[in-house]
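fwd from M.: "can u put these together and see what the complex looks like"

so here's what she sent:
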Amino acid sequence: MFICNMGDVVAVNNENGKDAPSPSKDKLFDPSVDMLVNDFDDERTLEEEEALAAGESEDPNAELSSLQKESNMPLEELLKLYGYHNENQENESPIEEEDEVDPEPMEEQESEPDPPEQPSGLHVLYEPITDHEDASRLLRSVSRVSEEEEEDYDYSPDEEEWRKVNKTIMVGSDYQAQIPEGLCHYDDALPYENEDKLLWNPNILNGLVIENFLKKAAVVNKSVIPMGSQLRDDEQALFLLQQCGHNVDEAIRRISINTLPNADAMSLWSEEECRNFESGVRSFGKNFHQIQQNKVRTRSVGELVQFYYLWKKSERHDIFANKSRLEKKKYALHPGLTDFMDRFLEDQDGRDRSSSPNVQFSSDNAIGFSRLQRRPITNTLNVKQKYYSFIRQTNITRLPSLQI
Amino acid sequence: MTTKKVSYFYNPDVGNFHYGTGHPMKPHRLSVIHSLVLKYGLHNKMSIYRPYKASVHDMCRFHSDEYIDFLQRVTPQNIQAFTKHLSHYNVGDDCPVFYGLFDFCSMYTGASLEGAMKLNNNHCDIAINWSGGLHHAKKFEASGFCYVNDIVIGILELLKYHARVLYIDIDVHHGDGVQEAFYLTDRVMTVSFHKYGNYFFPGTGDMYEIGAETGRYYSVNVPFKEGIDDVSYFQVFKPVISNVMEFYNPTAIVLQCGADSLAGDRLGCFSLSTKGHGECVKFVKDLNVPTLVVGGGGYTLRNVARCWTYETSLLIDEEISNELPYTEYLEFFAPDFSLHPEVVTRQENANSRQYLEAITKYVYDNLKMCQHSPSVQMHDVPPDAIHEDEKIKEEENPDVRISQDLEDKMVDAKNEFYDGDKDQDKPDEDL
């Protein structure tokens, strides 16, 4: 981010030269490791070193000698191009070391005058002079290109664009990750062992008993929406049964205590409301606001949404969906042809089917309704099953497999 | 030594991304490795998982919201609209915008994250994710082919259960993104072995970068010069890691196995052989600490595939033959078609023995300063990043006895004699 081409570095160096830590401090540490790392020549004379440390690296002798030392490096050309800069970096290393010894490294870093060491403050100063940021970023892809990969050679940007950016590790909330505080308990217990909760064990009671229980539960637990003549697994009822130690009577008793608030929460929908809602869905889709405005004024939008989700699972919806699918198909098969007789019959048919306002097992004419209902329901179920099994098969072939 | 439970994370789609023509980073290497792993039969000895895909939320545990939002929205088509952002987030040159960029990120990040979780829950001892290890990515910007730093996100997950996590990086490049993320903390020690100097990317990784504040002495850098060979590398690696273990005593390790430190890499300049590289992995494995193994760099495709296949076999303690099995990629490995080709290097080893000794000594002196491993108080449990049931499970096909998913998770016993259910081979004398 704090990019500077070489000219800038020189300028800033000169400006801040007087603030640089005095070279005498360098004697505080043993330089041997440091010298090794930075390719220092052991035979370098003291004068030379002092001269370099004082920032007067433009001395032609020093530069020449350094270039000689670097001559067997692979990126010769670059070194020649930026020889001055490299020298400069070598000189900074002792200062860095000095920095580490300081008891307050952070403060020292803030006040460090060298541009590479001090990103944040100087960055502001630099902003006006930096011209092309992108060109001077240190690019990884150019660091070395093997001769073997000729076909990819063209990728590497111009070597001239590659400038040394003094990257440093930045400190601040913008750079570090937030470490989670504290630790989880971590003992020998298997994970999840205590969190697991048995919801239902099918092996304790036999099938018939459970079926009878579910039938009773369904009678007691009246639902708002007609649930159809099939017996459904009621997970909550089963869980309750298991909580009651598989005592059927006790479970039924508890269910009958608990059902009342549920019925209150949503008052029964009249057949007319249901029909209006369905026609609303047909014309406005799932725009419940529109449906409320134009079709079912007696209910709030929230109630409509709630009803929608219940309705979706009911058999009314199956009939609804099936019918609309059939209609679509018919028009798709004979576009432009309107068979009014057909339409009329279908409408009649549909009205018959959906004429049961709130089908319940308890109602006296339930038998009558269920006779009317049975055929269409089984039909829709068949269609659905076929549809699902079709999906399942195609899914299997499409699943990404490991090709073992 | 007891055998370890190994989990291997591979998303079948992760190899299908492309950084762009001529770009040295080739995600396709992951498919090559996986096909070798399968053909060597290594999948029978470990549990294979199709990993979870990381969400924006997971990535924002380290990265900034704006940056991740940008990654999610930018595509090669609408790139014009983001000109300003591109240079701000360092996206463009090294880190191009390509099709499916965000999907790619969420795949490799999710795999590392799930690996960390499996380790946390003791479901396995070693988790392998060769697609991860993108160690350069910073909080606010992409860098060096890396967009989202899956390592940092994985370590953050490990920190929920582990007081001290050790990060080891044997990529040829400095692991600057990870070091920077944990520069101020003592709960993560980052140790990176890399090439330093001569403007080598990313420019950081001097041995004097040792961390700051609480994290002082908890960043370890071992800079090498070009051309280091197996013997010299291990001569430093072994004592440094041993010392780190002694002084820091981590309870979990993340090992970044960047394969660009191999000889003949397109971008790297070291002279390691696959065996030498694997030796480091084996050494870390034998420390008997839960380990998340991730990939990283590696730009000569055939060598990366060899290296990581070999290392997979090391991690599950399985010997594999030097002769490569037939795969659709066999021609990549011409002319020798072997796992451990002869190392040919024109690079001279610029690291003198004296230099290596000096640097080992320096690291040792610094490590002595952090003798007291930090401990952490027990605390309220932050929930796991992913709930098991959040992964959408397809309904199982009732007609299949053992589903693909189940089969992938099964591990053959060491002494398993038959290749599979249908193996009908009889001993020779019966014929």
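replying to her w this: Chain A has four domains: 6-161, 207-265, 267-311, 314-399.
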